[in-house]
Amino acid sequence: MKLKPIFAEILAIRIIPKVHPDMIKKFDLPPNHSSIGMFTVTIDDIGIVALDEATKQADIEVCYSHSFYAGSAYSSGPLSGEFIGMFSGPNNDEVRSGMEAVIKTVNKEAYFEALNEEVSHVFFAHVVPRAGKLLSKEAGIKEGESIAYLIAPPLEAMFGIDIALKEANVELRSLFKPPSETNFAGGLLTGTQSACEAAANAFREAVIHVANKPKHY
């Protein structure tokens, strides 16, 4: 089966060079942070990977990230998408560097894969070779360790993660039980980079198997 890569789209970006003190307090920013960058994107998991990448490329801290309920098809407005990410930095230059990392990741590096021409059946089998601040915290691992970030529709995800754990020398660190805010499911698996690659490949093949024979047991 030939899979089509599905990239997300960044819908809106803003940088606030000097955040109001009330906003600094509400977002509990570090004492020396005065700038905020924010973006919305059409696919939440890609937004999370991009936000994590930004923490490796610039002196920033994630101050808020959240998926929107039901996904981008039911968003609150044309610029809402499926996810909002916000991060702070000590100055405008660091925040801009972080945003550049976000844009590059969304446009070129992280993508879902479609199982059909209608692009209605998709999944995410992405390996993060070196986790940043956001994903390492979510997975409960050290920064710099590898992660297999696996997402699919509910049944496909649960079946695929079980197969991935059996086929590769990885550990399940986070399980996103169905339904997520966007009605998907998945998990974060950790191990060596090669083990994470093997896990992602096993997950991909398992999802394809379900797609080809959904009622076969």
How are the SSEs placed, and which strands pair?
Elements: E1 4-6, E2 10-16, H1 21-26, E3 35-41, H2 44-57, E4 61-67, E5 83-89, H3 92-109, E6 112-114, E7 122-128, H4 133-139, E8 146-152, H5 154-167, E9 171-176, E10 185-191, H6 193-212
Antiparallel strand pairs: 1-6, 2-3, 3-5, 4-5, 6-7, 7-8, 8-10, 9-10
Helix pairs in contact: 2-3, 5-6
Question: Could you provide a short overview of the structure?
Answer:
The protein has 6 helices and 10 strands, in the order ββαβαββαββαβαββα.
What portion of residues is helical?
25-40%
% residues in beta strands: 25-35%
- Summed over residues and divided by their number, the pLDDT gives a mean of 97
N to C succession of SSEs: EEHEHEEHEEHEHEEH
Secondary structure: number of strands: 10
| Number of helical elements | 6
Low-confidence stretches: none
Radius of gyration: 18 Å
Going by helix content, strand content and strand pairing, the class is alpha+beta
Q: How would the global form be characterised?
A: globular
Tell me about the biggest sheet? Answer: 6 strands, antiparallel
